[in-house]
Amino acid sequence: MPVLKQLAPKIGPLRRLYEDRNRLASKLAQGPDLESGLGQNRFYHYTAAFDAIGTMRRYAAANLKPTPGYLTNWLGVRIDPKFFPHLLVGRAGEVEGIPIPANWHADIAEWAAVLQAVDDANPESFTMIELGCGWGWGCWMNNAGAWLHAALAAACNVIAC
């Protein structure tokens, strides 16, 4: 047996990855699970140590209003369709619903991971860097910032900031 196969079960994150892969393969072998979406769409095939869909639902902005000339995502971030005309033509003035399992930008795994990173951050400070974003001034910073702004506003209402 190769050394890596002997070492992997002894390293927690690698062992969990291996076990999750086997669990997913077993579920797929049983056929589609219509309730969870497993088998319906490739974007349901991810592994997380937290409730990814629950995290997304918890932070979806409520009562969003459309903005003329912009597509508004489920967190309230506005995107100028000119950044992706081949994907977003005709979508100006729309408000997108929560992207389960995915939208034009990202899937469950990506959206939930960004929100979970903010959730898990030190409440006194959060530092983020984004490299290589092609639209806006850092698409993931915009999305994380929209959530953080909403969370701070909600906290201030609760504790009377």
What would your notes on this structure say?
The model has no long low-confidence stretch (mean pLDDT 79). The chain is globular. By secondary structure, the chain is mostly helical. The chain has helices spanning 3-7, 12-29, 52-59, 85-88, 108-120, 139-159; strands at 71-72, 78-79. β1 and β2 form a beta hairpin.
Strand order of the largest sheet: 1-2
Helix content: 40-55%
What's the overall geometry?
Answer: globular
What fraction of the residues are assigned to beta strands by DSSP?
A: under 5%
Oligomer: single chain
How would you state the average pLDDT, rounded?
79
CA-based gyration radius: 19 Å
SS field, number of helical segments: 6
Distance between the termini: 60 Å
Q: Write down the secondary-structure element order.
A: HHHEEHHH
Structural class computed from helices and strand pairing: mainly alpha
Helices and strands, with pairings:
Elements: H1 3-7, H2 12-29, H3 52-59, E1 71-72, E2 78-79, H4 85-88, H5 108-120, H6 139-159
Antiparallel strand pairs: 1-2
Helix pairs in contact: 3-5
Give a concise summary.
The chain is 43% helix and 2% strand. By secondary structure, the protein is mainly alpha-helical. The protein is globular.
Give keywords.
161 residues, mainly alpha, two-stranded antiparallel ribbon, 6 helices, 2 strands, globular
